[in-house]
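hey
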């Protein structure tokens, strides 16, 4: 009887503690699996940000109404950009005068791993008008911008005010030849854009500061991801398809002539 009772007690003890150990083990296992999934997702997100695409928040109205303030845009790192595309690029030479408030340290971590869109405190977004070797001129007798002699119809993207009137392609007359490894960029809201035009007298040689190094480009903007009522995708405007390639190799130094327009 004693041995039987003792055996029953041992069996009862195993029955009372076994389920507790099993539950704890399952919880630990579940937490481990969850941690692995989270870490894996963060690693994948970081890799996608580094090699595939990245999100940015638009901080200003220089690209209105194509891009509005606080739009979240997707930039592709796998797609080559070309004349006419909207691109995000690193500030080439202290173009940014006032910088938006930066995120907290936790927010910066979120940006780094791709969970949060970049606030772009040292990035700009503009439309590429001229590539290396291109001759960009404004404005002709009809008030149009031209590239390599081909007039651009920019009505599809230039900013229109509340009264429906569209901004001029440029209030500054100029003619430039883009040097090698550089590009000439402009905002779609030309009256509010601090772009290549305002730096045409700056740099060494003269005007070099106006031309953005191609190497600073993060990639072309391919879509607006948020807010929901702004979701759209982008392609190169049709008017740029008619622009011929330059006839001469891109020069080492830019050609810059201001007051070169013929329309005014």
């Amino acid at each position: 009887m004693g041995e039987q009772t003792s055996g029953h007690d041992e069996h009862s003890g195993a029955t009372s503690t076994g389920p507790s150990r099993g539950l704890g083990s399952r919880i630990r296992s579940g937490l481990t699996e969850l941690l692995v999934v989270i870490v894996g997702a963060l690693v994948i997100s970081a890799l996608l940000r580094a090699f595939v695409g990245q999100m940015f928040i638009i901080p200003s109205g220089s690209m209105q109404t194509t891009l509005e303030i606080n739009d979240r845009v997707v930039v592709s790192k796998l797609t080559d950009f070309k004349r006419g595309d909207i691109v995000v690029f690193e500030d080439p030479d202290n173009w940014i005068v006032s910088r938006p408030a930066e995120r907290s340290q936790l927010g910066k971590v979120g940006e780094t791993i791709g969970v949060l869109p970049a606030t772009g405190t040292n990035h700009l977004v503009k439309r590429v008008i001229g590539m290396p070797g291109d001759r960009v001129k404004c404005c002709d007798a009809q008030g149009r911008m031209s590239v390599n002699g081909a007039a651009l119809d920019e009505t599809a993207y230039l900013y229109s005010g509340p009264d429906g009137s569209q901004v001029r392609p440029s209030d500054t007359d100029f003619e430039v030849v883009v040097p090698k490894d550089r590009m000439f960029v402009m905002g779609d809201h030309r009256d509010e854009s601090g772009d290549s035009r305002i730096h045409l007298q700056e740099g060494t040689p003269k005007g070099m500061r106006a031309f953005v190094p191609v190497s600073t480009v993060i990639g072309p903007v391919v879509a607006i991801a948020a807010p929901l009522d702004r979701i759209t995708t982008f392609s190169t405007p049709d008017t740029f398809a008619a622009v011929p390639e330059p006839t001469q190799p891109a020069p080492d130094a830019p050609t810059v002539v201001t007051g070169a327009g013929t329309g005014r």
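DSSP finds two helices and 13 strands in the chain. The mean pLDDT is 83.
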